[in-house]
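Hey,

Quick one before I head out. I ran the complex with flavin mononucleotide overnight. Inputs first:
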Amino acid sequence: MNILHLDASASKHAESHTRRLSARLVDQLTAANDAATVVYHDLADMKLPHIDTTIRDAWAPEGERDASLEELATRSKTLVTELQAADTIIVGSPMYNFSVPSTLKAWIDHVAIAGQTFRYTDSGPEGLLADKKAYLILSSGGVYSEGPAASSDHLDTYLRTVLAFLGVTDITTIRAEGVAYGPEQEEAAMQQAYSQIQAL
Ligand SMILES: Cc1cc2nc3c(=O)[nH]c(=O)nc-3n(C[C@H](O)[C@H](O)[C@H](O)COP(=O)(O)O)c2cc1C
């Protein structure tokens, strides 16, 4: 098992719902698989730059690209290689303004590369990441899995859309939601999420 573990919360581990939950899942999976490897990125710490159109040029064959693009090329290729090598993808992400933190969006922009993780065919785009399992460990102040705010959820739906576009369709979401509704609801949401992880 090769795990790619991403955390996108801007909060430190002890205060972060998603960091604590994603770490629990990684611990559980590695405890059950002696040979498991883990590549971890703290995206809040990593501070990937926003991409610009040079990312296309950076993927040009070596020798054909400008020397100034080496750093960008190395970074993007490393991130794509890690994603290709993973059979298990664990994304810990809070909801920020109804969607993913921009640090996670930046990672997505670095790995969604035509010809590498997806390709265009005569019948439309095709994801190139086959045989992978993804776990989305999500948290939000409000409740979006059901009820009046469900149509405002651009977190779970967005991540599922992106992953499916890249070919990852086996996706399990675990959410601690409504954590802003008071300490009792927060505790209940965390315990429910921990229980869901334990039951996996
Ligand atoms: C910048 C920012 C934006 C947020 N936007 C939303 C939001 O749109 N909807 C929501 O329900 N909660 C929102 N929240 C609350 C977080 O989603 C919630 O506290 C979540 O548990 C944070 O996860 P974490 O503890 O792992 O960082 C926001 C929090 C921050 C810091």
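Residues 2-50+86-198 form a domain with the Rossmann fold fold (CATH 3.40.50.360).

Talk tomorrow,
K.
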